Amino acid sequence: MSLKLFSEIKIIGVNPYVLVESEEIVKLVPSDWKKPIPVIIQVNGQPEQPWHINMVPVGNGDYYLYLHGDVRKASNTKVGDTVEVEITFDEEYKNGPQHPMPSWFKEALDKESSALKNWEALSPSRKKEVLRYFSWLKSENAIQRNLEKAMKVLSGKTGRLMGREWKKGI
To answer: Residue-wise over 111-124: b if at least 16 C-beta within 10 A, else e?
Structure first.
């Protein structure tokens, strides 16, 4: 089952999103669903290959549908635009990290017990987000820069990684 809605792209921190209201959600999933909802989306009919993502509960029955940069680029949209969003419940979604842990990250975690402890305490969705982010790094410079940031924040120091503020390892 899928639904189409028109919504304005808004932003929380550095994360663009559209709000999917509770009355729309009941068209997609059971009414007692309280966790992230795996969906496939297109914005203004793009990208050509629909994008897999989880809608995240707001807490009042509504959900945030965060829009990845690749989706916004493909649809030529930005914060403030009103867009048509097609959302389909992703029945084939499989939970858990989809990207393997890079050896350079595993080796660094193995050497720093406090960072490893905080890594293990992260939610599965946060781990998945970090591993996905690391999978996009191509240059040795980008890998080293992001590894240093990751180890700093996972060791409990305040810092920024992946567009968000981390404190006390989370």
So the answer is: eeeebbebbeeeee
Are 39 and 54 in contact by the 8 Å Cβ rule? The answer is: yes
Architecture (CATH level 2) of domain 2-89: Beta Barrel (2.40)
**pLDDT given for residue 33 in this prediction:** 65
Kindly give the pairing relationship between strand 164-166 and strand 15-20: unpaired
CA–CA separation, 149 vs 161, rounded Å?
Answer: 6
Paired residues of 161 in beta bridges:
164
Domain ranges of the chain: 2-89, 103-166
Question: How, if at all, do strands 37-43 and 63-66 pair?
Answer: unpaired
pTM of the model: 0.58
Q: Count how many residues are written for the chain.
A: 170
Give 138-153 pLDDT, tens digit per residue: 899 999 999 999 999 9
- pLDDT 10s digits, 102-133: 999 999 999 999 999 999 988 877 888 899 88
CA-to-CA distance for 145 and 137, rounded, in angstroms?
A: 10
Q: Distance between CA 7 and CA 44 in Å, rounded?
A: 11
Q: Give residue 166's Cα distance to chain centre.
A: 16
Q: In what side-by-side order are the strands of the sheet with 2-8?
A: 2-8, 82-89, 37-43, 46-57, 63-66, 15-20, 10-12
